[in-house]
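User: Fold this, then the next.

Assistant: Folding the first:
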Amino acid sequence: MDTTSRVSIIAGDIEIDLEGAASDVEEQLMLHRQDDTWTIMLDRLAQARTEALQAAVSAAKEKGLPERGSAFRVLLDTCSLERKPDQVLGAIHYLRGVEGIQDSPPRVINQLFEDAKIDPPGNLSLYLNRLRERNFLMIPAGKEDKNRFAHLTEEGRAHLDKRSTA
C-alpha cells in the first residue's frame, strides 16, 4: 500500500504545495526551510496572527464583549489551568496578549481573578517568583526587577500550549 503525504501552505503570494512519499515531502520541506521564502512566509503568518488578535481585541472592546472575567475564565478552562501557578501564568498571558496591559500590579491581577469569580492567588509575589525561577516569566531590562512588568518567555508560552493540548 503506497501512502502519499501532502503539505500545502499559502501565505499571500507565497505558495508551498508538496506531495509524495513522506520522506520525499520531508526532504522538500527541509529545502524550503533553508530558503528565504520560508522566513518571509513565517513572518507573514506571524503578522497576520498579530493583526487578527488586534482586530479581535478592538472588536471586543468596541462591543464590550466578552466581559473580561468570562474571557479569562474561558482561557483557564480551554488550557486546563487548574493549579494556581498555572492560572497566574495564564493571567499574565491574558493581560499582555489580549488586553495589551504591560504594567500589571498585584491589584490588577487579583481583580482579573475576582472578575472571573476565582479566588485570587493571595501571595502573588511568591507565584511570580517561582514562575520566574522556572523560566516561564521574565522582567524586561530597565524595569528595576519589578514583577508587575513580567511577561511570558518562550518556555512559558510552550507550557501554556502544552496544557491546552493535554
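Now the next one, as you asked:
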Amino acid sequence: MKLKIGDTAHSFKSFDYKGKEIQLSDLKGKHTLLAFFRNSECALCNLRVHQLLNAYPKLEQKGLQVVAVFESTRESIENSVGKTEVPFRLIPDPSEQLYSLYDVNSSWFGVIKTMLTAGEEIQKAESLGFEMKKVPGMKMDRMPAEFLIGPDLKVKIAKFSSKVTDHIPLEEIEAHLN
C-alpha cells in the first residue's frame, strides 16, 4: 500500500555503501528526505543528487537529513555518485527490498514521458558530465520516489514520480522545515 501524508514511514534496516548500518529509527528527531533513485549511474538521478548537494548546507542547517537509495551495488555507488564527497547517506539496494517496502513504481510510460519532456534536464545533466547511457543491469523503467518524513517519522510529503525528472521541489521541502 502506498504511503500517504500522515502515515508512519515504513520501518527498515539496511547498510549504506560504506557498510554503516542505518534504520528508520535512526532518523527520528529530524526531518528526513528519503529519496529513491534508479541507479547510481543514471544521469538524471545524478542531476537531482547535484541539486540536493547544492541545497544541502542550507537545508541541513534547517534540520534536514537526506538518505538516498539506489538500485545499484555498493561498488557501483562507490565508482559513480560516491566519487563525490556526499554529506548524506547512500544506500545500495540491488535486491530492491526497500523499493518494494516503499512501493516505488516502474513505468515505461514514465520513461517515454521523460524522454519527450526532459530535454532541458538532459542537457543540464550532460553539461555537468553526467552521461546519458544504458548500464548493464539497469532497470530503465524505474521511477523515482521521494518522501519527506517528519521528526516523528510521519510522512509529510509522498511523491511517487510519473517521470524520471519529477521530484519534490526544494522550496516545498524548505517550507516544511520552517
